[in-house]
Amino acid sequence: MNHKKLISLSQREIIGFDDEYININITKLKKYFYCLLASLGYMLAGFFVGWSSKLLILHERSTEFNNLSRCQISWVVSAFPLGIVIISMGLSKIYYYIGPKLLLMLASMIIMISWILNMFFDGNNFNILFSSRLIGGCGSGIIFVIMPIYMKEIGGSQYKTLIVDLLTTQFGLGICIQYLMGES
After folding, report:
1. What's the CA gap between 182 and 64, in Å, rounded?
2. Which of 29, 166, 165, 141 lies closest to 91 in space, CA to CA?
3. In contact, 73 and 80? CB cutoff 8 Å
4. Pick from 48, 153, 143: which is nearest to 104 by CA?
């Protein structure tokens, strides 16, 4: 395909539908696929919960987290839900100005920043761990509030139970994967 022609393609030609006609033009299989793809954000939130539940065990077994006190570890663990609460308060106002797609993309970037802080900085630094978890909680808070609304827009109201089941399953799967990863 010609490069210039690819740039000039419309959204309808690339992915098969326009935003205005989302409930009319998507087949049932596409709706399932888009809902499954969108629900991966809940799996990321499950990763955060699974990671924090292993932190005390990591503190006792490894030298990486030995410089943190139990009080500091409890603050690191509680930073994730604190971030969810902080961002959820003003999210309904922002939703109408920005829209669900942009908010979900913003949430994914926020979560990526959180995991980058976890990966590349010292595990003994309380401030970095706390900030990382707080940032991750803010990103997950956006996902928790906006994702069901966005999935209902994609799938329509007849798929409400499927959406709830899918989101709950993805969250639990994220926790389970984090447990299966062991002490990494």
Report:
1. 15
2. 141
3. no
4. 143
Q: What is the pLDDT of residues 24-65, one digit of tens each?
A: 455 777 777 877 888 888 898 888 888 877 776 766 776 665
**Distance between CA atoms of residues 137 and 133, nearest Å:** 6
Q: Would you say 111 and 54 are in contact if contact means Cβ atoms under 8 Å apart?
A: no
Asked whether the beta carbons of 125 and 66 are under 8 A apart, the reply is: no
Kindly calculate the radius of gyration of the chain based on its CA atoms and give it in whole angstroms: 19
- Give the per-residue pLDDT at 6: 44
Check if the beta carbon of residue 50 is closer than 8 Å to that of residue 174: yes
- Segment 63-81 mean pLDDT: 80
pLDDT in tens, 1-19: 544 444 454 545 555 555 5
Every domain of the chain and the residues it spans: 52-156
CB 65 within 8 A of CB 55: yes
